[in-house]
């Protein structure tokens, strides 16, 4: 096993580095080891409910070195995607205030009526009336975009809450319209980071706890994939999956000796 050729680690957060507000044992040592070996690391999260600055502040509270270039969220990727493909289009939005403020940095135009796009994020402020309006707009032909396909988000005590994918499933069942997901497993976020930091795909590794998002994104982007068993995936789910990670570790702590 040799991960010494990896120059950039793209790290999932929930279930990989921490759970809720609890940093996993060895996670800080893992980041410190990456820094010591002069490698790059970016926390690449599908969780779009928080802004980049929210995540920077959270990682600092947890005692992990985190600066502007160390965070990339599916919300940020959505902002870039809209700039590249739907500039000046009107957007009806289901998501948190933090995500909305993040998207404003990319000049997204939000409206309450007659949108070109219905955009859904991990919305912990969701109300039913907005779901009804989203259905109306989708029925009328609006483009359906979403930050991430995660069905659940892990929280403490081994519990889960509905994530963006579950919200989108409700809308799909009601309208028969399916969204385009910008976050993992779409390789879009990885492609952006590879280009931004000028790192070849063979020198990039994705580290995460979910096969259907983290590992599949790495597979789709043709980079090294590392699955940790600290979150959602188990040896059984890995065995049952058609897509296999290149490496499996109990936690990020166990990666340290290999980099």
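-> sequence recovered:
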């Amino acid at each position: 096993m040799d991960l010494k050729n990896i120059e950039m680690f793209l790290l999932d957060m929930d279930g990989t580095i921490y759970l809720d507000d609890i940093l996993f044992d060895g996670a800080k040592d893992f980041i410190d080891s990456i820094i010591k070996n002069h490698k790059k690391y970016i926390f690449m999260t599908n969780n779009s409910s928080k802004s980049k600055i929210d995540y920077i502040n959270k990682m600092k509270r947890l005692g992990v070195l985190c600066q502007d270039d160390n965070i990339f969220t599916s919300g940020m990727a959505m902002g870039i995607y809209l700039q590249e493909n739907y500039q000046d289009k009107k957007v009806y939005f289901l998501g948190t205030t933090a995500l909305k403020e993040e998207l404003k940095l990319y000049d997204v135009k939000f409206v309450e009526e007659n949108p070109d796009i219905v955009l859904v994020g991990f919305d912990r402020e969701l109300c039913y009336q907005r779901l009804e309006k989203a259905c109306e707009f989708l029925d009328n032909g609006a483009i359906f975009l979403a930050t991430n396909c995660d069905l659940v988000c892990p929280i403490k005590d081994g519990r889960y809450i509905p994530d963006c994918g579950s919200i989108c499933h409700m809308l799909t069942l009601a309208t028969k319209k399916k969204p385009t997901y910008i976050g993992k497993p779409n390789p879009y976020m990885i492609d952006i980071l590879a280009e931004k930091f000028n790192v070849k795909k063979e020198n990039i590794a994705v580290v995460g706890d979910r096969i259907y998002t983290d590992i599949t994104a790495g597979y789709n982007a043709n980079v090294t994939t590392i699955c940790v068993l600290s979150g959602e995936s188990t040896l059984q789910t890995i065995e049952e999956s058609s897509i296999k990670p290149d490496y499996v570790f109990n936690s990020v702590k166990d990666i340290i000796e290999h980099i």
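Residues 8-46+184-258 form a domain with the Rossmann fold fold (CATH 3.40.50.1000).
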